[in-house]
């Protein structure tokens, strides 16, 4: 067994600081975590206030808390807007029962933290209707049926895992949980309010209580009504508690997650699934609130980890892990018991006997402990001392996904979105929130310009003057979008010129875009030469960096016609409830160049097709991500079909069908292939 080099154990402060620095590099600095949280927060706020879906959506879990650890999944919660759970009948007076479906929580026969849900008024929500069962002349919503029917509601072919539909999409693991919401704090969690003397502070506590809780569709495994019971979920409260942590506390939570994955869960098969990340989070919550460590800071970072580890060891010994909000809910009851509990305790006790040196068994942390004497720190370390480079922070912001769900509702939706943007601009925002707002605004402006054009073209009796005004407005919005957006957003302007038959103007923008995309400092899909980027764009404003140095895949909303050549693919995806097409920027660029030159110069059109063909056939992931090869082969096939090279087109379509179906275009591909074969027979 490895041990610390001589003198390390005694120098606990230096060890703590070294591990703290290591965790900043693995988990993130204060600034990186702030970027992740603030951008997701404002995006969800925008979507919640502008989309007209029948349900609300919220990201939760590690992703929402600010983690981006390898292997972490993305958790999403959905609940119907017009359904509310109440804790007692007196709370019904706060709702208009004509447009709100009320559900009563009845926990009288359930274990702590669980409840039955009794339907009080008719529901039009399909999944509630499917899950109804009759008991003693009352209708209850059975959790097992609800989970079964909602499992694949968001992503087809998901696998039921607890209350969630789980699976992989584009190589990333996801968990989606359809649930129900309650605006009131559950009485069974009232003791938590009384415990919050020192942490979290009163403002956070008030915020948490006022936002109520959720109910997720899973019963207690040892309960009498397992298939009917629902678990009370405090996901939103937990997120707010994590936000209330200082950075040392947050990184302690991160260290426990890493230690669980790399050390605790690597012991034996019998014990490697007994503990989970949620137990680690609960341990940190209790350790902070019980004030076991008076000062959580880089200098005693390892001490914070050790406090939590000892608490976890105690819980395993006793077989009791009290839920942070409802302590009577023992989260070890069904799993950590019997011989498995005993084996787990002995394994943890062996780690405990080694003291904090047990951290050496984590390959992610070990290096920072061993190397700590080789790089002495001449300054006092604080939570904000450890920083990342400007380009690393920029990449954090660039790589944050943004959504265009507000385009789902047509012009009314985007009008509402622009109004909300105006309201946000007038409120105090951080630089990261402003940056995300710019990304969302560019997306909304692009969609609006095409919606406006399509509306006037579709209405046959639109006067020439109206079409002219609409065109001027669309062009102006696309110009604004380029100011807010990035280099690749120029392609929307090119698409618009192509759509309105201005091929030469489109080609001039294609040349400009090619020049911008050829710059050596360009960030393309999160990859960049950091030295060149810093040399050219270091210190510049975020808008300048976006306009000059950032390119990303092109997102086309499936309810908007951008160019007619992709209508079949958009229709195919819409049939599978898929929001949009995602196309590699260089594939889209060559596609548009081919289409424009088709009306201007046949030889140059063939040259553009040749460039596209070389790219699709030979790219090794530099310009086309593996998950986007379906649409890339499809577009190549479309171009070849337009050029009447049916054999090559058929091969490209066949290749498209063998790729990961991210864009859900298989129906369009099959129809194109069938139409080609019919044409060959009759023509």
Q: Could you give the topology of this structure?
A:
Layout: H1 12-26, H2 30-50, E1 55-60, H3 61-65, E2 74-80, E3 83-86, E4 101-106, E5 114-119, H4 126-130, E6 132-135, E7 138-141, H5 143-150, E8 159-161, E9 164-169, E10 172-182, H6 190-195, H7 202-210, E11 213-216, E12 230-233, H8 235-243, H9 247-262, H10 277-289, H11 301-318, H12 338-353, H13 363-370, H14 390-398, H15 410-425, H16 431-458, H17 464-484, H18 490-499, H19 503-517, E13 523-524, H20 530-537, H21 542-549, E14 550-551, E15 554-557, H22 567-575, E16 580-583, H23 585-597, H24 602-618, H25 629-642, H26 646-658, H27 666-682
Parallel strand pairs: 2-10, 3-4, 13-14
Antiparallel strand pairs: 1-2, 4-5, 5-12, 6-7, 8-9, 9-10, 10-11, 11-12, 15-16
Helix pairs in contact: 1-13, 2-15, 2-16, 7-8, 9-10, 9-11, 10-11, 11-12, 15-16, 16-17, 17-18, 18-19, 18-23, 19-23, 22-27, 23-24, 23-25, 24-25, 25-26, 26-27
């Amino acid at each position: 067994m490895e041990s610390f080099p001589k003198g390390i154990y005694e120098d606990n402060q230096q060890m703590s600081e070294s591990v703290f620095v290591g965790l900043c590099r693995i988990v993130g600095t204060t600034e990186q975590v702030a970027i992740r949280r603030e951008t997701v927060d404002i995006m969800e706020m925008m979507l919640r206030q502008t989309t007209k879906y029948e349900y609300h959506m919220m990201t939760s879990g590690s992703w929402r808390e600010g983690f981006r650890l390898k292997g972490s999944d993305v958790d999403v919660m959905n609940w119907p807007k017009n359904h509310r759970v109440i804790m007692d009948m007196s709370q019904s007076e706060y709702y208009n029962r004509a447009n709100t479906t009320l559900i009563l929580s009845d926990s009288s026969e359930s274990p702590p933290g669980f409840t039955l849900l009794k339907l009080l008024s008719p529901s039009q929500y399909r999944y509630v209707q499917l899950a109804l069962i009759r008991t003693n002349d009352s209708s209850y919503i059975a959790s097992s049926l609800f989970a079964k029917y909602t499992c694949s509601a968001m992503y087809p072919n998901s696998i039921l895992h607890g209350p969630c539909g789980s699976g992989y999409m584009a190589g990333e693991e996801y968990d989606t949980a359809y649930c129900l919401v309650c605006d009131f704090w559950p009485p069974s969690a009232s003791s938590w309010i009384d415990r919050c003397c020192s942490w979290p502070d009163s403002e956070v506590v008030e915020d948490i209580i006022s936002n109520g809780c959720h109910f997720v569709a899973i019963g207690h495994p040892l309960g009498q009504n397992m298939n009917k019971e629902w678990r009370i979920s405090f996901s939103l409260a937990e997120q707010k508690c994590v936000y209330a942590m200082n950075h040392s506390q947050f990184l302690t939570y991160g260290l426990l997650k890493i230690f669980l994955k790399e050390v605790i869960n690597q012991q034996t098969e019998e014990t490697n699934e007994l503990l989970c990340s949620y137990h680690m989070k609960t341990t940190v919550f209790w350790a902070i609130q019980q004030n076991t460590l008076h000062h959580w800071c880089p200098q005693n970072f390892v001490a914070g980890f050790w406090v939590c580890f000892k608490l976890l060891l105690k819980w395993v010994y006793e077989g009791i892990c009290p839920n942070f909000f409802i302590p009577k809910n023992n989260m070890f009851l069904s799993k950590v018991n019997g011989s498995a509990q005993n084996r787990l305790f002995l394994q943890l006790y062996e780690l405990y006997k080694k003291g904090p040196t047990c951290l050496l068994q984590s390959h992610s942390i070990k290096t920072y402990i061993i190397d700590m004497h080789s790089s002495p720190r001449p300054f006092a370390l604080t939570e904000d001392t450890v920083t990342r480079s400007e380009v690393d922070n920029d990449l954090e912001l660039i790589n944050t996904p943004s959504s265009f769900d507000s385009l789902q509702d047509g012009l009314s939706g985007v009008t509402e979105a622009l109004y909300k943007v105006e309201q946000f601009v007038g409120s105090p925002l951080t630089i990261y929130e402003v940056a995300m707002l710019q990304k969302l605004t560019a997306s909304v402006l692009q969609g609006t310009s095409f919606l406006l054009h399509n509306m006037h073209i579709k209405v046959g009796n639109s006067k020439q003057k109206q079409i002219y005004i609409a065109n001027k407005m669309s062009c102006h919005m696309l110009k604004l979008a380029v100011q807010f957006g990035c280099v690749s957003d120029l392609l929307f302007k090119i698409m618009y010129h192509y759509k309105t038959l201005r091929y030469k103007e489109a080609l001039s923008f294609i040349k400009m875009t090619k020049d911008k995309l050829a710059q050596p400092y360009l960030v393309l899909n999160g990859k960049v030469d950091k030295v060149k980027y810093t040399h050219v764009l270091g210190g510049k404003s975020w808008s300048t960096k976006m306009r000059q140095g950032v390119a990303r895949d092109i997102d086309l909303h499936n309810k908007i016609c951008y160019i007619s050549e992709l209508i079949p693919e958009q229709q195919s995806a819409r049939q599978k409830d898929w929001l949009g097409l995602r196309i590699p920027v260089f594939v889209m660029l060559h596609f548009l160049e081919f289409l424009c030159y088709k009306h201007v110069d046949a030889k140059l059109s063939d040259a553009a097709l040749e460039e596209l063909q070389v790219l699709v056939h030979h790219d090794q992931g530099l310009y086309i991500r593996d998950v986007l090869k379906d649409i890339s082969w499809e577009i190549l096939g479309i171009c070849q079909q337009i050029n009447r090279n049916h054999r090559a087109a058929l091969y490209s379509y066949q290749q498209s069908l063998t790729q990961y179906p991210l864009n859900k275009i298989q129906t369009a591909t099959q129809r194109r292939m069938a139409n080609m074969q019919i044409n060959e027979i009759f023509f």
